[in-house]
Specification:
Elements: E1 2-11, H1 15-26, E2 31-34, H2 63-77, E3 80-82, E4 86-90, E5 95-100, E6 103-114, E7 118-120, E8 133-135, H3 136-144, E9 153-157, H4 161-172, E10 176-182, H5 191-199, E11 204-206, E12 208-214, E13 221-226, E14 239-242, E15 245-248, E16 252-254, H6 257-261, E17 266-269, E18 274-277, E19 290-292, H7 302-319, H8 325-342, H9 345-365
Parallel strand pairs: 1-2, 1-6, 2-3, 6-19, 8-15, 9-10, 9-15, 10-11
Antiparallel strand pairs: 4-5, 5-6, 7-16, 12-13, 13-14, 17-18
Length: 373
């Protein structure tokens, strides 16, 4: 087994991980980025739509273009990137068990930033294991990355931004979105995305759910029904849609396995996808030297993930003495101001409150320690 050392190991080469790597490497840290995929960039390279927000968050720029710019910055910063590489274990001393190029490594890092993102939730119903039932993110990968159309007639379950955006992108790729089904009484995503679907003639059926899927070895028919206030199907309201694909956009949950393994403490916040690692204002967990950033801290969106990555990278570099107190304070103030702007408004306020829950929980755990931001 081989052994290497580095100042900072970043697990995950998505928007948060690349941002963290850039900040830390730019401060002079020896940075190793590790990702199990054969291409870096995470979700950004699946996002062909234009981002919202402010100029600071590249509003009007498509996600894959942002990913290209971020990747170029990381490459110029001098950070090393290991792709097709698996991190299978982590210790409290920030040592990692890694498989790279078929060989086992122990990576000994002074600091570790976990930016592993999130995974799709699934929903079980009769026929949910038939070929043709998949996560919306899987369908987006097929269309935008692999240029493969998953089906010709699609039923989308879930009206959050993922369900709305992927539905429109499937239409752009040539699929017919038969209907978008949502159990809640109103859509969960931005009205601008829903408006594009409505103008294209896609029925958005709120107060409905999928009750079963049938077909001879694959999806052929999708039965839907109205639901009551407890989200139970109402007998007699069933109807059948002809379709060959069902996409599930029913939420995400943080990929926290490595953080659990390291012994970090967690809190449960439903708004962020479930159990999330407790961390302070520097993105450091209850395990000293272990930082988190992006959707692993609670599911938000790419712009927030990038800013959390920026914050973790700056704070890890500062902890190593590569930035002065004044330099770190200035950078953190700028990043936190941008994060606050992202978490303002109708949807952002819920996320701001949820993030504060994490900080409050950690502060209580540590007895009011000033380490908590």
């Amino acid at each position: 087994m081989r052994e290497i050392t580095t100042d900072i190991a970043v697990i995950g080469a998505g928007s948060a991980g690349l941002s963290a790597a850039y900040q830390a490497a730019s401060a002079g840290a020896d940075v190793l980025v590790i990702d199990e995929n054969h291409l870096p960039g995470g979700q950004l390279f699946k996002q062909i739509h234009k981002f919202f927000g402010s100029r600071a968050h590249q509003a009007g720029t498509r996600g894959f273009q942002i990913g290209q710019e971020l990747l170029e910055r990381v490459q110029k910063s001098g950070a090393r990137v290991w792709l097709d590489t698996l991190v299978y274990g982590i210790e409290r001393d920030c040592s990692l068990g890694v498989i790279h190029d078929g060989a086992h490594y122990v990576v000994r890092a002074k600091k570790v930033i976990v930016a592993t993102g999130a995974k799709e939730n699934y929903m079980a119903f009769p026929g949910s294991t038939l070929p043709g039932v998949m996560g919306a993110g899987a369908a987006q990968t097929m269309v935008n990355v692999n240029r493969v159309l998953p089906g010709k007639r699609v039923v989308m379950l879930g009206s959050g931004n993922v369900g709305l955006i992927v539905s429109y992108q499937l239409m752009q790729a040539g699929a017919d979105v038969v209907a978008l089904v949502e159990a809640a009484p109103e859509i969960g995503g931005y009205a601008v995305h829903a408006g594009k679907l409505r103008r294209a003639g896609v029925p958005i059926l709120v107060g409905h759910t999928i009750t079963r899927v049938t077909g001879d070895g694959q999806v052929e028919r999708v039965e839907i029904a109205q639901v009551d206030k407890q989200f139970n199907p109402i007998p007699g309201t069933e109807r059948v849609l002809e379709a060959d694909t069902v996409c599930l956009a029913v939420g995400l949950n943080p990929m926290t396995e490595l953080v659990w393994m390291a012994g970090c403490k967690f809190c449960f916040i439903p708004a962020f996808g479930g159990h999330v690692p407790m961390h302070d204002g520097n993105m450091e967990t209850t395990v000293p030297g272990l930082y988190v950033a992006g959707d692993v801290t609670g599911v938000e969106e790419a712009s927030s993930a990038m800013e959390e990555g920026n914050l973790a990278g700056v704070c890890a570099a500062h902890a190593l003495g590569l930035l002065t107190d004044e330099q770190a304070a200035d950078k953190k103030a700028e990043i936190n101001a941008r994060l606050d702007a992202l978490r303002a408004g109708l949807f952002g306020e819920r996320r701001r409150t949820a993030k504060q829950q994490q900080l409050d929980a950690m502060q209580a755990e540590q007895g009011g320690n000033d380490h908590v931001g």
